[in-house]
Structures are given as C-alpha cells and as structure tokens.
Design a protein that fits this description.
The protein is mostly helical. It is built from 16 helices and no strands. The chain has one domain. About 75% of the residues lie in helices and about 0% in strands. The termini are far apart. Belongs to the chromate ion transporter (CHR) (TC 2.A.51) family.
C-alpha cells in the first residue's frame, strides 16, 4: 500500500524570504520554540503544507546532524521554490540574529569583560536547562543514562572534536544493538523524486573528508576556519546547544578566541531570535573580522543544505529502517553526556567564580525552568545584575 502523499503548493521566492525573515525577527526560545513558530505560520496561517507533511519534515531533520529548526526552514523553502527557495528561507531566518551578533562582536571589543560577566553566568543556566530537558527526553532509563554518563566521562578524557565524533559513532553502534526492537513511528511520506539530489550527499561527504587535508596544505586561516565550522555543522547531533563543545574545541584551543570571549558570545547568542548556530558569526568576527564572520556562517550551515536536500527523497526508507533509527537512541543519550561535560567545562569553570555567581546562575535557571520566562528577559536581567556583581 502506497503511503499518503501531499502535493506542496509552490510560492514565489520573495514571499518565502519575507515569511522566513519575519520568523527570524520574532522566533525566540530555541529550536523547539522555533518549530512551534513554523507550524503556526506555515501550516496554520499560510497553509503552505498540511500537518502530516510538516511532521515528516520535522522528523527527518531531527534525525540529521545540525540545527533542526534551520533545517526545517531550509526544507520548507526547498519544497516551495527549489534551491533558491531554500537559500531565501535560510537567509531570511538567519540574517537578523547573524547581524546582531556581528555588531555585538565588533562593539564588545571596547566593553569590559566584567560588565558582561552576567552573560557568562546566564550561559550556565541555559546549558543546565538544556541538559535537564534533554536528559528527561533521551536518558530516561538505565541503559540510556549509562550511555550519557559514559559519554560525559569520555568527553573529559578525550576533549578534542575527534574524540567527540568517536563517542557519537560508538553510541550509535550501541543504540543499534540495544534498541533494535523499537519500531519506527508510521507517518505519511513526502513525495519528492530523487533525481540528482544524491549528488548533494556526495558533496557533503567529499567536503567532510577533503577540507581537513586542504586546510593542512594551505596556510590560509580562512580555509582552516571554514574547515573547522563545516565539521562542527556536519557532526553535531542534538541541536544548537551541543555545538558548544565542538566549537570550543576548535576555536579556543587554536587561540582564535579566548574562553572569556567564547562564553560572552554564547551568552549573547541566547538573547537574539533565530538559530543558535549564528553564534558562528560572532566567533568568525572575533577571529578574523567580517570575512571570518561570512566564512564561519556559511560553513556551519552548509552541511544542513546538503543533508536536507540530499536526504528528502530517501526519507521513506530512513523512517522505516529500524536499525538506523535505533542507533539514534544511543546517539541522543551520548549527546546528553557531551553537553553535561560542556556544562562543567568550559561553561561552569569560567563563569562561576564566587558564591554570588552561583546564586545568579541558580536564579536564572529557576526563571527558565520553573517560571518559563523568555530567554531574552533572563539574559537582560542577568547582564544587569552581573554588571553590579
């Protein structure tokens, strides 16, 4: 029996960009909130697709590495207006936060780190809140919790980006063995012919393999920057917060930015709408100026383009492959452990220096987790209090 298919109505590129830009200006609250904004706009208000098609796209992007909400936006743009629609949707949703963080990186050079200390502290609360929520979703039983704890320990023993990739791969292998009896959820499929889309997956893997070699053979810092951020965007499972340890291993250990600059920018990234991956814009600007900002931003989002457009035609096979989906149970648990390790270092060790810092972080966590306050409000309040501390 053939799965039910939904014919997506096409719309002009300009309308795709305008809609995505409006969402990029108002979408606070992280990837889960972004998906809620998308559903309200694309499914309910504009009726560009039905609930089943949207659920298919969200499920696909949750299985892929990279920023899930940005990938959903790219997928919607692609379904509406092809490759140009995907680019327009990405620019619209990403540009507002990228510009804000670029300007912040430029003007914060003259701002004392002590004045921005509250942003470092609120990063502790934000990451702790992410760990708490992800642990309840992905490490809720003994086996998954054990994988999470093991991943956290191994993250300390092997703190570089390569070690984290190995942890994710091993966790996926364990998941495919431990959870293969879990049956995939049946959902309607997206009807897209494969055509030449497989070439996008080929480009994804070619770049992943060749960029480190090219970076070693050339002396260009921008090529090295592109390589580092492309690998970060290609190997992050679990959303925006998990990119923190991968980027920290790339840019801080290489001396491009200091730990204080890294955490200050991460704290500021919580205050802006749109995808957290625009944190790359800030890091690129601090490292190598506006050229670095452009290179880092394109590099970290490029894997999302290649993966979403390349895998959409094969979604039906992926969602029905029980062993493939079982692997992600282990990967998600490992992501919790990697994020837990990042919560301690570099986030906690750099931000919490006095009892007053701990009290501020605890209060910020309370506002986020219990009172459900908007992250923008929490960041602003923490920055003001941090200035006095």
């Amino acid at each position: 029996m053939n799965p039910e298919k939904y014919i997506v109505q096409k719309h002009p590129i300009w309308e795709v960009w305008k809609t995505a830009a409006r969402l990029g200006l108002v979408s606070f609250g992280g990837p889960v909130a972004h998906l809620g904004y998308f559903r309200e706009e694309y499914v309910k208000r504009k009726q560009w697709m039905d609930e089943k098609t949207y659920a298919d796209l969200v499920a696909l992007c949750q299985l892929l590495p990279g920023p899930a909400s940005s990938q959903v936006g790219i997928g919607i743009g692609f379904l509406q207006a092809g490759m140009l629609g995907a680019i327009a949707a990405w620019i619209g949703f990403t540009l507002p936060s990228a510009l804000i963080l670029l300007l912040f990186a430029y003007f914060s050079k003259g701002i004392a780190i002590d004045w921005l200390h509250g942003l470092l502290v609120v990063a502790v609360a934000v990451v702790a809140h992410a760990v708490w929520g992800m642990a309840r979703a992905f490490a809720f039983d003994r086996s998954r919790a054990t994988i999470a704890v093991a991943a956290a320990i191994l993250s300390f023993l092997f703190p570089n980006a390569g070690g984290q990739v190995v942890i994710i791969i091993v966790a996926g292998m364990l998941g495919s063995l431990l959870y293969r009896s879990h049956s995939p959820t049946a959902v309607s499929s997206i009807s897209i012919s494969s055509g030449k889309k497989v070439s996008f997956l080929l480009i994804f893997f070619i770049l992943l393999g060749l960029l480190p070699l090219v970076a070693q053979l050339t002396s260009s810092p921008l090529v090295a920057l592109f390589d580092s951020f492309y690998r970060a965007g290609a190997l992050v499972f679990g959303g925006g917060h998990v990119v923190l340890p991968l980027l920290q291993a790339q840019v801080v250990t290489k001396g491009w930015v200091t730990n204080e600059q890294f955490l200050t920018g991460y704290g500021m990234a919580q205050a802006v709408p749109g995808p957290l991956f625009t944190f790359a814009t800030y890091l690129g600007m601090v490292s190598f100026g506006w050229k670095g900002a452009i290179v880092a931003t394109i590099a970290i989002f490029l894997p999302s383009f290649l993966l979403v457009i390349g895998t959409l035609p094969f979604w039906e096979w992926i969602r029905q492959h029980a062993r493939f989906q079982a692997a992600f149970h282990g990967i998600h648990a490992a992501v919790v452990g990697i994020l837990l390790a990042a919560l301690y270092h570099p986030v906690w060790t750099k931000a919490i220096q006095t009892p007053a810092d701990f009290c501020l972080a605890l209060a910020a966590f309370c506002l986020l987790a219990i009172w459900k306050c908007p992250p923008l409000l929490v960041v602003i309040v923490s920055a003001i209090i941090g200035a006095f501390i």
